[in-house]
Protein backbone atom coordinates (compact mmCIF):
# COMPACT_ATOMS: atom_id res chain seq x y z
CA UNK A 1 0.00 0.00 0.00
CA UNK A 2 1.43 3.35 -1.06
CA UNK A 3 1.09 6.58 0.86
CA UNK A 4 3.00 8.90 -1.46
CA UNK A 5 2.94 8.81 -5.25
CA UNK A 6 6.39 7.44 -6.01
CA UNK A 7 8.52 8.26 -8.99
CA UNK A 8 7.44 5.05 -10.67
CA UNK A 9 3.78 5.99 -10.34
CA UNK A 10 4.55 9.49 -11.62
CA UNK A 11 6.28 8.14 -14.73
CA UNK A 12 3.36 5.80 -15.21
CA UNK A 13 0.96 8.73 -14.96
CA UNK A 14 2.93 10.84 -17.43
CA UNK A 15 2.87 7.94 -19.83
CA UNK A 16 -0.89 7.63 -19.39
CA UNK A 17 -1.43 11.30 -19.92
CA UNK A 18 0.43 11.31 -23.19
CA UNK A 19 -1.07 8.00 -24.22
CA UNK A 20 -4.63 9.14 -23.64
CA UNK A 21 -4.09 12.82 -24.25
CA UNK A 22 -6.26 13.20 -21.12
CA UNK A 23 -9.30 12.73 -23.30
CA UNK A 24 -11.59 9.72 -23.33
CA UNK A 25 -15.02 11.03 -24.21
CA UNK A 26 -16.05 8.25 -26.60
CA UNK A 27 -17.43 5.28 -24.64
CA UNK A 28 -17.17 2.93 -27.61
CA UNK A 29 -13.52 3.68 -28.35
CA UNK A 30 -10.55 1.47 -27.53
CA UNK A 31 -8.91 4.44 -25.85
CA UNK A 32 -11.87 4.82 -23.50
CA UNK A 33 -11.69 1.17 -22.45
CA UNK A 34 -7.93 1.26 -22.03
CA UNK A 35 -8.12 4.48 -20.00
CA UNK A 36 -10.74 2.93 -17.71
CA UNK A 37 -8.57 -0.16 -17.12
CA UNK A 38 -5.52 1.98 -16.36
CA UNK A 39 -7.51 4.21 -14.01
CA UNK A 40 -8.84 1.16 -12.17
CA UNK A 41 -5.25 -0.07 -11.80
CA UNK A 42 -4.20 3.31 -10.36
CA UNK A 43 -7.02 3.05 -7.78
CA UNK A 44 -5.99 -0.51 -6.90
CA UNK A 45 -2.43 0.73 -6.35
CA UNK A 46 -3.62 3.34 -3.85
CA UNK A 47 -3.49 6.25 -6.31
CA UNK A 48 -5.81 9.20 -6.91
CA UNK A 49 -7.92 9.43 -10.06
CA UNK A 50 -9.84 12.57 -11.01
CA UNK A 51 -12.90 11.63 -13.02
CA UNK A 52 -16.02 13.22 -14.44
CA UNK A 53 -19.50 12.73 -13.06
CA UNK A 54 -22.71 14.27 -14.36
CA UNK A 55 -22.56 16.90 -11.57
CA UNK A 56 -18.91 17.98 -11.16
CA UNK A 57 -15.49 16.29 -11.41
CA UNK A 58 -14.51 14.13 -8.44
CA UNK A 59 -11.10 13.29 -6.95
CA UNK A 60 -11.32 9.58 -6.22
CA UNK A 61 -9.53 6.93 -4.20
CA UNK A 62 -10.28 3.35 -3.19
CA UNK A 63 -12.87 3.78 -0.42
CA UNK A 64 -11.42 0.75 1.37
CA UNK A 65 -7.84 2.04 1.43
CA UNK A 66 -7.55 4.61 4.27
CA UNK A 67 -4.05 5.69 3.21
CA UNK A 68 -5.29 6.44 -0.31
CA UNK A 69 -8.32 8.29 1.08
CA UNK A 70 -6.04 10.32 3.35
CA UNK A 71 -4.22 11.53 0.23
CA UNK A 72 -7.47 13.12 -0.99
CA UNK A 73 -7.65 15.24 2.16
CA UNK A 74 -4.02 16.31 1.72
CA UNK A 75 -4.49 17.14 -1.98
CA UNK A 76 -7.56 19.27 -1.24
CA UNK A 77 -6.42 20.79 2.04
CA UNK A 78 -9.67 19.49 3.44
CA UNK A 79 -10.25 19.14 7.19
CA UNK A 80 -10.25 15.45 8.18
CA UNK A 81 -13.69 15.58 9.81
CA UNK A 82 -15.49 16.42 6.55
CA UNK A 83 -16.88 13.15 5.24
CA UNK A 84 -16.60 11.91 1.65
CA UNK A 85 -19.26 10.42 -0.60
CA UNK A 86 -18.68 6.82 -1.68
CA UNK A 87 -19.47 6.40 -5.38
CA UNK A 88 -20.92 2.99 -6.10
CA UNK A 89 -21.32 0.90 -9.25
CA UNK A 90 -24.85 0.44 -10.57
CA UNK A 91 -24.91 -3.16 -9.37
CA UNK A 92 -23.55 -2.48 -5.88
CA UNK A 93 -26.15 -3.24 -3.20
CA UNK A 94 -26.78 -0.51 -0.63
CA UNK A 95 -26.09 -3.11 2.05
CA UNK A 96 -22.44 -3.26 0.99
CA UNK A 97 -21.82 0.15 2.57
CA UNK A 98 -24.77 0.80 4.91
CA UNK A 99 -27.08 -0.84 7.42
CA UNK A 100 -30.56 -0.32 8.91
CA UNK A 101 -31.58 0.92 5.47
CA UNK A 102 -35.04 2.55 5.48
CA UNK A 103 -37.48 1.68 2.66
CA UNK A 104 -37.26 5.28 1.40
CA UNK A 105 -33.63 4.67 0.42
CA UNK A 106 -34.58 1.78 -1.86
CA UNK A 107 -37.39 3.82 -3.41
CA UNK A 108 -35.08 6.75 -4.17
CA UNK A 109 -32.15 4.61 -5.33
CA UNK A 110 -34.39 2.76 -7.79
CA UNK A 111 -35.85 6.00 -9.05
CA UNK A 112 -32.79 8.28 -9.26
CA UNK A 113 -29.65 6.18 -9.60
CA UNK A 114 -27.55 6.59 -11.56
CA UNK A 115 -28.13 10.28 -10.91
CA UNK A 116 -27.36 13.44 -8.93
CA UNK A 117 -28.71 12.28 -5.56
CA UNK A 118 -26.58 11.38 -2.53
CA UNK A 119 -28.19 9.42 0.29
CA UNK A 120 -26.86 9.59 3.84
CA UNK A 121 -27.40 6.27 5.61
CA UNK A 122 -26.08 4.55 8.70
CA UNK A 123 -22.71 3.14 7.76
CA UNK A 124 -21.78 -0.53 7.61
CA UNK A 125 -19.23 -1.45 10.30
CA UNK A 126 -16.30 -1.88 7.90
CA UNK A 127 -16.57 1.62 6.37
CA UNK A 128 -13.48 3.54 7.42
CA UNK A 129 -13.52 6.58 9.72
CA UNK A 130 -11.25 8.26 7.17
CA UNK A 131 -14.15 8.26 4.70
CA UNK A 132 -16.92 9.19 7.13
CA UNK A 133 -14.97 11.73 9.16
CA UNK A 134 -15.73 9.61 12.21
CA UNK A 135 -19.52 9.88 11.77
CA UNK A 136 -21.80 6.89 12.11
CA UNK A 137 -23.25 7.60 8.68
CA UNK A 138 -22.05 7.31 5.10
CA UNK A 139 -22.91 9.25 1.92
CA UNK A 140 -23.63 7.08 -1.13
CA UNK A 141 -24.39 7.74 -4.75
CA UNK A 142 -24.24 6.14 -8.21
CA UNK A 143 -23.03 8.83 -10.63
CA UNK A 144 -24.63 9.15 -14.05
CA UNK A 145 -21.64 9.46 -16.35
CA UNK A 146 -20.45 6.71 -18.73
CA UNK A 147 -16.81 7.16 -17.73
CA UNK A 148 -17.54 7.11 -13.99
CA UNK A 149 -19.79 4.08 -14.34
CA UNK A 150 -17.25 2.21 -16.47
CA UNK A 151 -14.51 3.02 -13.96
CA UNK A 152 -16.62 1.82 -11.03
CA UNK A 153 -17.41 -1.40 -12.83
CA UNK A 154 -13.79 -2.05 -13.83
CA UNK A 155 -12.52 -1.21 -10.34
CA UNK A 156 -15.13 -3.33 -8.60
CA UNK A 157 -15.04 -1.33 -5.34
CA UNK A 158 -16.37 1.94 -4.01
CA UNK A 159 -14.65 5.19 -4.94
CA UNK A 160 -14.51 7.81 -2.18
CA UNK A 161 -14.54 11.17 -3.94
CA UNK A 162 -15.18 14.79 -3.07
CA UNK A 163 -15.35 17.46 -5.76
CA UNK A 164 -11.88 17.83 -7.35
CA UNK A 165 -11.15 21.35 -6.08
CA UNK A 166 -9.24 22.79 -3.16
CA UNK A 167 -11.35 23.08 -0.03
CA UNK A 168 -13.84 25.96 -0.20
CA UNK A 169 -13.27 26.70 -3.89
CA UNK A 170 -15.66 26.44 -6.81
CA UNK A 171 -16.17 22.83 -7.98
CA UNK A 172 -14.64 21.91 -11.37
CA UNK A 173 -16.95 21.14 -14.28
CA UNK A 174 -14.26 20.39 -16.88
CA UNK A 175 -10.99 18.44 -16.87
CA UNK A 176 -9.13 21.71 -17.54
CA UNK A 177 -10.55 23.16 -14.30
CA UNK A 178 -9.24 20.13 -12.38
CA UNK A 179 -5.79 20.43 -13.87
CA UNK A 180 -5.69 24.15 -13.17
CA UNK A 181 -6.77 23.69 -9.58
CA UNK A 182 -4.99 20.53 -8.47
CA UNK A 183 -1.99 20.39 -10.82
CA UNK A 184 -0.39 16.99 -10.46
CA UNK A 185 -1.85 16.25 -7.04
CA UNK A 186 -3.66 13.34 -8.67
CA UNK A 187 -2.08 10.37 -10.42
CA UNK A 188 -4.48 10.34 -13.35
CA UNK A 189 -7.10 12.68 -14.76
CA UNK A 190 -9.85 11.30 -16.96
CA UNK A 191 -11.33 13.85 -19.31
CA UNK A 192 -14.98 13.07 -19.95
CA UNK A 193 -15.96 16.49 -21.28
CA UNK A 194 -17.96 19.19 -19.48
CA UNK A 195 -20.35 18.06 -16.74
CA UNK A 196 -24.02 17.96 -17.73
CA UNK A 197 -25.51 19.16 -14.41
CA UNK A 198 -22.75 21.57 -13.29
CA UNK A 199 -23.52 21.76 -9.56
CA UNK A 200 -23.09 19.12 -6.87
CA UNK A 201 -25.65 16.41 -6.09
CA UNK A 202 -28.71 16.84 -3.90
CA UNK A 203 -27.90 15.35 -0.46
CA UNK A 204 -30.69 13.73 1.50
CA UNK A 205 -30.11 12.43 5.01
CA UNK A 206 -32.12 9.27 5.69
CA UNK A 207 -30.13 8.22 8.76
CA UNK A 208 -32.31 9.95 11.32
CA UNK A 209 -35.94 10.19 12.33
CA UNK A 210 -37.29 11.68 9.11
CA UNK A 211 -35.70 12.66 5.79
CA UNK A 212 -33.65 15.85 5.85
CA UNK A 213 -32.25 17.84 2.95
CA UNK A 214 -28.57 18.65 3.58
CA UNK A 215 -27.75 20.17 0.20
CA UNK A 216 -30.15 21.19 -2.58
CA UNK A 217 -29.22 20.04 -6.08
CA UNK A 218 -30.64 19.22 -9.49
CA UNK A 219 -33.27 16.93 -7.98
CA UNK A 220 -35.59 19.39 -6.28
CA UNK A 221 -37.00 19.10 -2.78
CA UNK A 222 -40.65 19.12 -3.86
CA UNK A 223 -39.97 16.29 -6.31
CA UNK A 224 -38.41 14.17 -3.56
CA UNK A 225 -41.33 14.94 -1.24
CA UNK A 226 -43.76 13.83 -3.94
CA UNK A 227 -41.89 10.56 -4.50
CA UNK A 228 -41.60 9.82 -0.77
CA UNK A 229 -45.11 11.13 -0.04
CA UNK A 230 -43.83 12.86 3.08
CA UNK A 231 -42.37 16.24 4.01
CA UNK A 232 -38.59 16.68 4.08
CA UNK A 233 -36.90 18.92 6.63
CA UNK A 234 -34.74 21.65 5.12
CA UNK A 235 -31.17 22.72 5.91
CA UNK A 236 -30.71 24.92 8.92
CA UNK A 237 -32.69 22.76 11.32
CA UNK A 238 -29.42 21.42 12.76
CA UNK A 239 -25.74 22.31 12.88
CA UNK A 240 -24.09 21.93 9.45
CA UNK A 241 -22.82 18.38 9.06
CA UNK A 242 -21.89 18.87 5.45
CA UNK A 243 -19.12 21.32 4.61
CA UNK A 244 -21.05 22.12 1.43
CA UNK A 245 -23.52 23.70 3.82
CA UNK A 246 -21.00 26.04 5.35
CA UNK A 247 -21.89 29.68 4.94
CA UNK A 248 -18.92 30.61 2.75
CA UNK A 249 -18.25 27.82 0.31
CA UNK A 250 -17.98 27.53 -3.45
CA UNK A 251 -16.54 31.04 -3.35
CA UNK A 252 -14.59 32.79 -6.11
CA UNK A 253 -11.88 35.25 -5.02
CA UNK A 254 -13.46 38.24 -6.76
CA UNK A 255 -16.16 40.03 -4.70
CA UNK A 256 -19.50 38.74 -5.90
CA UNK A 257 -22.87 40.44 -5.49
CA UNK A 258 -26.30 38.97 -6.16
CA UNK A 259 -28.58 41.85 -7.06
CA UNK A 260 -32.33 41.92 -7.79
CA UNK A 261 -33.19 42.92 -11.37
CA UNK A 262 -34.82 46.13 -10.21
CA UNK A 263 -31.61 47.45 -8.64
CA UNK A 264 -29.09 46.01 -11.09
CA UNK A 265 -28.63 49.07 -13.32
CA UNK A 266 -28.11 51.39 -10.32
CA UNK A 267 -25.58 49.03 -8.80
CA UNK A 268 -23.71 48.77 -12.10
CA UNK A 269 -23.53 52.58 -12.43
CA UNK A 270 -22.15 52.90 -8.92
CA UNK A 271 -19.29 50.51 -9.70
CA UNK A 272 -18.59 52.07 -13.11
CA UNK A 273 -18.57 55.60 -11.65
CA UNK A 274 -15.80 54.48 -9.32
CA UNK A 275 -13.79 53.37 -12.35
CA UNK A 276 -14.11 49.72 -11.45
CA UNK A 277 -13.81 46.79 -13.82
CA UNK A 278 -16.86 44.62 -13.43
CA UNK A 279 -18.68 41.79 -15.18
CA UNK A 280 -22.40 41.15 -15.03
CA UNK A 281 -24.17 37.80 -15.32
CA UNK A 282 -27.76 38.49 -16.28
CA UNK A 283 -30.68 37.10 -18.23
CA UNK A 284 -30.46 37.95 -21.96
CA UNK A 285 -33.58 40.12 -21.79
CA UNK A 286 -32.55 42.31 -18.83
CA UNK A 287 -31.80 45.89 -19.80
CA UNK A 288 -28.30 46.95 -18.76
CA UNK A 289 -26.12 50.02 -19.35
CA UNK A 290 -24.45 49.62 -22.75
CA UNK A 291 -20.92 50.13 -21.48
CA UNK A 292 -21.11 47.19 -19.11
CA UNK A 293 -19.77 43.76 -20.15
CA UNK A 294 -22.72 41.38 -19.98
CA UNK A 295 -22.51 37.60 -19.83
CA UNK A 296 -25.93 36.28 -20.74
CA UNK A 297 -27.16 33.41 -18.57
CA UNK A 298 -29.73 30.81 -19.62
CA UNK A 299 -33.34 31.43 -18.58
CA UNK A 300 -33.81 27.84 -17.36
CA UNK A 301 -32.47 26.69 -13.94
CA UNK A 302 -30.73 23.61 -15.39
CA UNK A 303 -28.86 25.77 -17.90
CA UNK A 304 -27.98 28.28 -15.21
CA UNK A 305 -26.59 25.55 -12.97
CA UNK A 306 -24.59 24.05 -15.84
CA UNK A 307 -22.86 27.36 -16.60
CA UNK A 308 -22.49 28.92 -13.17
CA UNK A 309 -19.17 27.49 -11.97
CA UNK A 310 -17.46 27.72 -15.37
CA UNK A 311 -18.47 31.39 -15.60
CA UNK A 312 -17.26 32.13 -12.07
CA UNK A 313 -13.92 30.46 -12.75
CA UNK A 314 -13.42 32.31 -16.03
CA UNK A 315 -14.35 35.69 -14.52
CA UNK A 316 -12.27 35.07 -11.41
CA UNK A 317 -9.15 34.97 -13.60
CA UNK A 318 -9.77 38.39 -15.10
CA UNK A 319 -8.70 40.42 -12.06
CA UNK A 320 -12.06 42.21 -11.90
CA UNK A 321 -13.11 44.47 -9.03
CA UNK A 322 -16.50 42.79 -8.79
CA UNK A 323 -18.85 40.26 -10.36
CA UNK A 324 -22.52 41.27 -10.29
CA UNK A 325 -25.13 38.57 -10.76
CA UNK A 326 -28.76 39.24 -11.49
CA UNK A 327 -30.71 37.45 -8.78
CA UNK A 328 -32.42 34.44 -10.39
CA UNK A 329 -36.10 33.74 -9.85
CA UNK A 330 -37.15 32.07 -6.62
CA UNK A 331 -39.10 28.80 -6.44
CA UNK A 332 -38.26 25.15 -5.94
CA UNK A 333 -36.56 24.73 -9.34
CA UNK A 334 -34.12 27.51 -8.55
CA UNK A 335 -33.36 26.47 -4.95
CA UNK A 336 -30.00 24.84 -5.72
CA UNK A 337 -28.77 27.73 -7.88
CA UNK A 338 -29.82 30.26 -5.24
CA UNK A 339 -28.17 28.17 -2.55
CA UNK A 340 -24.80 28.15 -4.38
CA UNK A 341 -25.06 31.85 -5.17
CA UNK A 342 -25.82 32.58 -1.53
CA UNK A 343 -22.67 30.83 -0.43
CA UNK A 344 -20.48 32.23 -3.20
CA UNK A 345 -21.52 35.79 -2.31
CA UNK A 346 -21.74 35.36 1.45
CA UNK A 347 -18.63 37.41 2.22
CA UNK A 348 -20.27 40.39 0.53
CA UNK A 349 -23.67 40.30 2.11
CA UNK A 350 -25.26 42.60 4.66
CA UNK A 351 -24.08 41.37 8.10
CA UNK A 352 -26.59 39.13 9.81
CA UNK A 353 -28.25 37.93 6.64
CA UNK A 354 -28.60 34.18 6.35
CA UNK A 355 -26.68 32.68 3.41
CA UNK A 356 -29.36 30.11 2.76
CA UNK A 357 -32.02 32.79 2.52
CA UNK A 358 -30.89 34.35 -0.75
CA UNK A 359 -33.70 32.56 -2.53
CA UNK A 360 -36.39 34.36 -0.58
CA UNK A 361 -34.86 37.63 0.57
CA UNK A 362 -34.75 40.72 -1.47
CA UNK A 363 -31.07 41.33 -0.74
CA UNK A 364 -29.59 44.46 -2.16
CA UNK A 365 -26.22 45.82 -1.19
CA UNK A 366 -25.60 49.39 -2.28
CA UNK A 367 -22.21 49.70 -0.65
CA UNK A 368 -19.46 49.60 -3.22
CA UNK A 369 -16.47 47.72 -1.75
O1 LIG B 1 -22.11 15.81 -6.94
C1 LIG B 1 -21.44 15.51 -5.97
O2 LIG B 1 -21.92 15.19 -4.88
C2 LIG B 1 -19.91 15.53 -6.16
C3 LIG B 1 -19.51 14.43 -7.13
C4 LIG B 1 -18.02 14.32 -7.29
O3 LIG B 1 -20.09 13.22 -6.74
N1 LIG B 1 -19.25 15.33 -4.90
C5 LIG B 1 -19.19 16.29 -3.97
O4 LIG B 1 -18.43 15.90 -2.90
O5 LIG B 1 -19.76 17.35 -4.07
P1 LIG B 1 -17.99 16.94 -1.75
O6 LIG B 1 -17.17 16.17 -0.79
O7 LIG B 1 -17.37 18.11 -2.38
O8 LIG B 1 -19.36 17.25 -1.09
C6 LIG B 1 -20.05 16.17 -0.48
C7 LIG B 1 -20.82 16.64 0.67
C8 LIG B 1 -19.94 17.27 1.71
O9 LIG B 1 -20.57 18.49 2.07
C9 LIG B 1 -19.94 16.23 2.80
O10 LIG B 1 -19.77 16.78 4.08
C10 LIG B 1 -21.30 15.59 2.65
O11 LIG B 1 -21.44 15.49 1.27
N2 LIG B 1 -21.30 14.28 3.26
C11 LIG B 1 -20.64 13.18 2.87
N3 LIG B 1 -20.85 12.18 3.74
C12 LIG B 1 -21.67 12.65 4.68
C13 LIG B 1 -22.25 12.12 5.88
N4 LIG B 1 -22.00 10.89 6.26
N5 LIG B 1 -23.05 12.92 6.61
C14 LIG B 1 -23.29 14.20 6.25
N6 LIG B 1 -22.77 14.76 5.15
C15 LIG B 1 -21.98 14.01 4.38
MG1 LIG C 1 -16.95 19.98 -2.73
Detail the topology: elements first, then pairings.
Elements: H1 7-20, H2 30-44, E1 49-51, E2 58-62, H3 66-76, E3 85-87, E4 98-99, H4 103-112, E5 117-123, H5 129-132, E6 137-141, H6 146-155, E7 159-160, H7 175-182, E8 188-189, E9 202-205, E10 212-215, H8 221-228, E11 256-259, H9 261-273, E12 278-282, E13 294-296, H10 301-316, E14 322-326, H11 335-344
Parallel strand pairs: 1-8, 3-6, 5-9, 11-14, 12-13, 12-14
Antiparallel strand pairs: 1-2, 2-7, 3-7, 4-5, 5-6, 9-10
Helix pairs in contact: 2-6
The protein binds threonylcarbamoyladenylate and magnesium ion.
Threonylcarbamoyladenylate is lined by residues 53, 55-56, 58, 82-85, 118, 120, 132, 135, 137-139, 143, 161-163, 200-201, 203, 214, 241-244.
Amino acid sequence: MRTEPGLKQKRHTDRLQSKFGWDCTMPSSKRFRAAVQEAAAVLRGGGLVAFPTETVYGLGADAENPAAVARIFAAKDRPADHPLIIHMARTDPLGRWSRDIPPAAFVLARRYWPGPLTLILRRACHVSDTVTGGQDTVGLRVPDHPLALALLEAFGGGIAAPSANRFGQVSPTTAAHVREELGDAMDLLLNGGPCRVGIESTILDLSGYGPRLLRPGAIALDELEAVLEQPIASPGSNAPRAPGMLRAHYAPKTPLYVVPTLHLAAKIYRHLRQGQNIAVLAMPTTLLPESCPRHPMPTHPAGWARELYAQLRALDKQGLDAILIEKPPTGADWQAVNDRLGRASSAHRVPGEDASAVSDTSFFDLSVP
